[in-house]
Design goal:
disordered N terminus; 1 helix; 15 strands; mainly beta; eight-stranded antiparallel beta barrel; elongated; Porin; 5% helix
């Protein structure tokens, strides 16, 4: 009986599926990414006047993506959800002429369903180089929380915003065998994403007076505020071929 189990084990080992990227068709995946940020102080700047100063700003962007891939030897299709979430800011001093007017905390989240294409430039069994492109529709949620106000409305408040925009981009990637039928992928890409019409999603009494749901978010000159999440990025992905 002991020899029977040994033979069965060896048989299973011999019949274990060997990864061949040119022959694989379906995979689920997830990835994490990092980028520089063009957001800076744009979520909360220029509300009172153009000479406000801030003690901190958005510097780095982070995000992730998950979905599945349908692949052929030459082309792959990627269907996914992407989320972007720069590190939350808190306790940022908003000052004018050396006097602190308020403290602000800012939290940004963007979620986008996307479809993408991969063009395989090499077709080795355990690695490949590819170009990729994608397009999707992104939704923004932003919350700015103000405390310690010494200017009107002289009371703490929270401002909630929403917006939507198209997102597109592309880049180059390298995928290689990792463990069993799992691969790692490294991507260098560029994303174009700018929210140009941001609206209040809840009523509030703000630095600019009373605002109701649907009002446009504008600066002190009456121009629409925008949020630019466009950036170059680097991403590391895990793919699980079925």
């Amino acid at each position: 009986m002991r020899y029977f189990f040994v033979i069965c084990f060896l048989t299973l080992q011999l019949h274990a599926r060997v990864l061949s990227l040119s022959d694989e068709s379906f995979a689920s995946f997830f990835s994490g990414e990092m980028s520089t940020s063009a957001v800076k102080t744009s979520p909360f700047s220029d509300l009172i006047n153009g000479s406000e100063n801030y003690s901190s700003e958005y510097k780095n962007g982070y995000g992730g993506e998950f979905g599945f891939i349908y692949s052929t030897p030459y082309v792959g299709w990627r269907f996914s959800f992407e989320f972007l979430k720069p590190s939350k800011l808190s306790g940022v001093e908003g000052s004018n002429a050396g006097a602190v007017n308020y403290l602000v905390a800012s939290d940004i989240t963007s979620v986008a369903p996307k479809v993408g294409i991969e063009l395989h430039l090499s077709k080795k069994s355990n690695s490949r180089l590819y170009l990729f492109g994608f397009y999707g529709s992104a939704n923004l949620t932003m919350i700015n929380t103000y405390t310690g106000l010494t200017v009107s409305p002289n009371a703490d408040y929270e401002a909630n915003f929403k917006a939507s925009s198209s997102v597109y981009g592309g880049g180059i990637g390298w995928e290689w065998a990792f463990v069993d039928t799992t691969t790692l992928g490294l991507e260098l890409g560029y994303r174009s994403l700018s929210f140009k019409e941001i609206k209040f999603s809840k009523d509030t009494n703000s630095l600019q007076g009373s605002k109701v749901t649907g009002d446009l978010y504008q600066d002190y000159l009456g121009q629409n505020k925008s949020l630019n999440l466009s950036s170059s990025y680097i991403a590391l992905a895990f793919r699980f071929w079925l």
